[in-house]
């Protein structure tokens, strides 16, 4: 796969199925209005968050080199992030949760490189570079938190999803895109909202992925730290939202001590959160994560683990007590007394040991699926994997011997042993048969005419998780989201406004501009009477220059906008207050 993005060693080591989500950050696509939105949000956030955010936030801004004045470039961020052992990549909006978390496991921060529109300056349901770059990046400069993020990704990407989880992901992605796009018809948004509501109310029992996503939301995205009485902000969703960062610190938002029960508290990505969770410190986050992981199929395995994989209708892996890993789409399990006694994969399957595919056991060889008994032989306390060479000989389990192995649960394997595969400790991983018949009672599971039969060896399933054991075993470069982010529309009016923003920025940077500040104000107030942000910037420059006449006109114009547009009154007021406060500090 040809890389068309800035890379570094951390990005280079990403597997191909993750690289498929990376897109180039086209920095030239950011418009002067985009830059003004970034500047407003960052100035407001840094001013406010210096009082309410965790100490790591401001320190992290300095360490990661994120500039208040300009949208960061991935190339510049990666140069600096490299020093703290991380990297950043650009993607298109939401990507599937498993992939998002797997990036974290590789110490790579996923950044949606689009930026919110001016109309959604306070909050956008769609991920954007303000949320990712100004929210996530600064906090990972804290080593303890960065390790939590990496560990969360490592565990979270193994969480098993339900078949409906992906439907919900696609529905939320579409809704976020439609809400962020300009001029989306209300009926389209309503239809998308109804679909999200329907899916959220009909998910059935929450999957591992749904529950660990809740933990991610209430910590990484919307977490508070400290005490319930005096919390500080560290969650990226709060750090990047000038509206919710203030709202969350009021008594209108309930503060709860963080614990594993947060895994069962769902969230609505399109609305402000009614409650938030407070962790005493970053170390406690890892304790809760480990508590959750101990309940996952990843660590428990067993019958429940294989059943979760079957219900997911997706690629997954089980690991047996011998260390043998079977990866494929699991479609059936035969159980006996609460234990799995036979497992079945349909379609391409691969066998691995320690995340490395076994030679001769890839998807080309197991193209039609794979089935095997699991457990002990009937009436024998010693499992095959624990048998010594003498034991194996006693039970006729050796090359060239025709044998019938009767497992607990009425599974029989009859055939001639060809050979076996052992792990580095000498434990048998697989036994290969010819002229083999496998039955469960009267049901035939494998017939001699089907060819060679490979039987897995393992007395129990010790782990079950999402995805393959060896990422190179399967072609996973196949995900194309059904929806794409919608770019801002271009019009003569928008182009003129962008030109005015560009010239005001040039004036602020003491660079040659095509018009004067006074002319810029005349054009924006006359031709774009509803735009407020540029006039705030003009007022800032007029104030800095001591141009009281222009400042007064700009403030009067902003008052008239407040009358027409009550929804932006607080944004204008906050912008002016910030200008005046900064001027007093000079």
UniProtKB/TrEMBL annotation:
Q: What is this protein called?
A: Phenylalanine 4-monooxygenase
Q: Which UniProt keywords apply?
A: Coiled coil, Iron, Metal-binding, Monooxygenase, Oxidoreductase
Q: Does the keyword Oxidoreductase apply?
A: yes
Under the heading InterPro entries, the entry gives: ArAA_hydroxylase, ArAA_hydroxylase_sf, Aro-AA_hydroxylase_C_sf, Aromatic-AA_hydroxylase_C
The answer, when asked if Amino-acid biosynthesis is one of the entry's keywords, is no
Per the record, the coiled-coil ranges are 182-209
PROSITE patterns tied to this protein = BH4_AAA_HYDROXYL_2
What cofactors are annotated for this protein? Fe(2+)
Gene that encodes it? phhA
* Highest taxon in the source lineage: Bacteria
Please report which protein family the annotation says this sequence is part of: Belongs to the biopterin-dependent aromatic amino acid hydroxylase family.
Q: Where is the Biopterin-dependent aromatic amino acid hydroxylase family profile domain?
A: 1-259
Q: Which CDD domains match?
A: arom_aa_hydroxylase
Species this chain originates from: Flavobacterium okayamense
Q: Which Pfam families match?
A: Biopterin_H
């Amino acid at each position: 796969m040809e890389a068309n993005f800035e890379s570094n060693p951390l990005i280079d080591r990403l597997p191909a199925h993750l690289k498929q989500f990376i897109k180039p950050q086209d920095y030239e696509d950011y418009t002067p209005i985009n830059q003004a939105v970034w500047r407003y949000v960052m100035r407001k956030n840094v001013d406010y968050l210096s009082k309410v955010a965790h100490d790591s936030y401001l320190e992290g801004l300095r360490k990661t080199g994120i500039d208040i004045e300009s949208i960061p470039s991935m190339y510049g961020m990666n140069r600096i992030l490299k020093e703290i052992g991380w990297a950043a990549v650009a993607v298109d909006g939401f990507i599937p949760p498993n992939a998002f978390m797997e990036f974290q496991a590789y110490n790579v921060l996923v950044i949606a490189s689009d930026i919110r529109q001016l109309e959604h300056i306070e909050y956008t349901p769609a991920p954007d570079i303000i949320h990712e770059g100004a929210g996530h990046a600064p906090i990972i400069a804290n080593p303890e938190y960065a390790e939590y993020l990496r560990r969360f990704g490592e565990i979270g990407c193994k969480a098993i999803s339900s078949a409906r989880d992906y439907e919900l992901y696609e529905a939320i992605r579409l809704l976020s895109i439609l809400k962020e796009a300009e001029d989306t018809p209300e009926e389209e948004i309503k239809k998308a909202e109804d679909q999200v509501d329907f899916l959220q109310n009909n998910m059935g029992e929450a999957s591992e992925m749904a529950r660990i996503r809740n933990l991610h939301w209430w910590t990484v995205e919307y977490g508070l730290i400290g005490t319930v009485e005096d919390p500080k902000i560290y969650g990226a969703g709060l750090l990047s939202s000038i509206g919710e960062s203030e709202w969350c610190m009021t008594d209108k938002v309930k503060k709860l001590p963080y614990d594993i029960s947060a895994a069962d508290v769902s969230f609505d990505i399109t609305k402000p959160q009614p409650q938030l969770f407070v962790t005493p410190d970053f170390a406690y986050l890892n304790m809760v994560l480990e508590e959750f992981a101990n309940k996952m199929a990843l660590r428990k395995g067993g019958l429940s683990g294989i059943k979760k994989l079957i219900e997911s209708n997706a690629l997954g892996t089980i690991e047996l007590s011998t260390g043998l890993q079977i990866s494929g789409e699991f479609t059936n399990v035969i159980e006996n007394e609460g234990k799995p006694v036979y497992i079945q994969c349909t379609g391409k399957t691969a066998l691995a040991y320690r995340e490395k595919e076994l030679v001769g056991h890839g998807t080309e060889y197991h193209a039609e699926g794979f089935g095997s008994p699991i457990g002990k032989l009937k009436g024998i306390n010693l499992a095959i994997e624990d048998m010594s060479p003498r034991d194996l000989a006693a039970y006729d389990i050796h090359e060239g011997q025709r044998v019938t192995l009767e497992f607990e649960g009425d599974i029989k394997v009859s055939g001639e042993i060809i050979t076996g595969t052992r792990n580095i400790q000498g434990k048998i991983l697989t036994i290969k048969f010819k002229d083999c018949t496998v039955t469960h009672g009267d049901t035939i599971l494998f017939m001699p005419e089907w060819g060679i039969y490979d039987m897995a060896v393992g007395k129990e399933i010790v782990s079950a998780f999402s995805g393959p054991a060896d990422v190179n075993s399967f072609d996973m470069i196949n995900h194309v989201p059904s929806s794409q982010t919608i770019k801002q529309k271009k019009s003569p009016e928008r182009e003129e406004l962008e030109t005015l923003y560009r010239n005001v920025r040039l004036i602020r940077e003491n660079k040659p501009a095509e018009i004067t500040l006074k002319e810029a104000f005349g054009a924006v107030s006359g031709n774009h009477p509803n735009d407020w942000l540029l006039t705030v910037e003009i007022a800032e420059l007029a104030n800095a220059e001591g141009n009281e006449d222009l400042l007064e006109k700009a403030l009067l114009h902003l008052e008239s906008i407040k009358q027409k547009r009550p929804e932006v009154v607080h944004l204008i007021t906050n912008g002016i207050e910030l200008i005046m406060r900064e001027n007093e500090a000079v």
